[in-house]
């Protein structure tokens, strides 16, 4: 199946680079592009691409609001939006995910990671770069301190997850990638992926960021 991609980026050189990268893949087709947020929304609604690659800072309408209009609460058929940006340590990341983005990568990610990101989002999975997860932890850990150390949800999580799944959840909350978790727990990366999938399913979580937030809120891990 060919993945139809809409590239939304205000810098022409960057946009051209994305077009070149995606068009070179045998399973991808760039069906359109947009240089501002308003145009991004219009083209996404017109073309119905499989994945919208969206920059956060766009003229006329920023990428977050464009994403909210395409994938936010109340949208009947939400688009799959992969945010790609240089900004990773401020509230833009959090707001983009709240707006309904399916994934988030940094612009300095290598082409292979960008390509993998598009495929992951197209498959209906969520993707958040480990570096972004770490940034979220650093930026929001203080507000995620549990107000009650006997939080009842903590016991629910402990009873719902197997011991190994709890261990993986704690490592996710520490911002580790699957490969890093595998090395630390002496298991394979594929096994980690299986555990992560089970954790998200059992706890009804959308992505790793929600897992991080939950782990902090119920006091499984504590901000330093």
UniProtKB/TrEMBL annotation:
Pfam families assigned to the protein according to its UniProt record, in alphabetical order: GerE, Response_reg
UniProt-listed InterPro entries: CheY-like_superfamily, NreC/VraR/RcsB-like_REC, Sig_transdc_resp-reg_C-effctor, Sig_transdc_resp-reg_receiver, Tscrpt_reg_LuxR_C, WalR-like
GO molecular function, one term: DNA binding
Domain HTH luxR-type: 154-219
Residue list for modification 4-aspartylphosphate: 55
Key words of the record: DNA-binding, Phosphoprotein, Transcription, Transcription regulation
One GO BP annotation of this record: regulation of DNA-templated transcription
Residue stretches spanning the membrane: none
Domain Response regulatory: 4-122
Name the record gives this protein: Transcriptional regulator, LuxR family
Organism of origin: Saccharothrix espanaensis (strain ATCC 51144 / DSM 44229 / JCM 9112 / NBRC 15066 / NRRL 15764)
């Amino acid at each position: 199946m060919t993945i139809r991609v809409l590239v939304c980026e205000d810098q022409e050189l960057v946009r051209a680079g994305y077009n070149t990268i995606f068009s070179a893949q045998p399973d991808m087709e760039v069906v359109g592009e947009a240089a501002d947020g308003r145009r991004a929304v219009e083209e996404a609604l017109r073309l119905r691409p499989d994945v919208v690659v969206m920059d956060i800072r766009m003229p006329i309408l920023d990428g977050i609001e464009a994403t909210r209009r395409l994938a936010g609460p109340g949208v009947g058929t939400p688009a799959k939006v992969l945010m790609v940006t240089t900004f990773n340590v401020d509230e833009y990341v959090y707001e983009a995910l709240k707006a309904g983005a399916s994934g988030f990568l940094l612009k300095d990610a290598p082409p292979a990671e960008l390509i993998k990101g598009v495929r992951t989002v197209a498959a209906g999975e969520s993707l958040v770069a480990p570096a972004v997860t770490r940034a979220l932890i650093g930026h929001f850990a203080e507000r995620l301190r549990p107000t009650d150390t006997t939080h009842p949800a903590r016991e629910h999580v402990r009873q719902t997850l197997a011991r190994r799944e709890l261990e993986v959840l704690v490592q996710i909350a520490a911002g580790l990638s699957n490969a890093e978790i595998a090395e630390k727990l002496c298991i394979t990366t594929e096994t980690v992926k299986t555990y992560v999938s089970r954790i998200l399913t059992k706890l009804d979580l959308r992505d790793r960021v929600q897992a991080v937030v939950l782990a902090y809120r119920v006091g499984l891990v504590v901000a330093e």
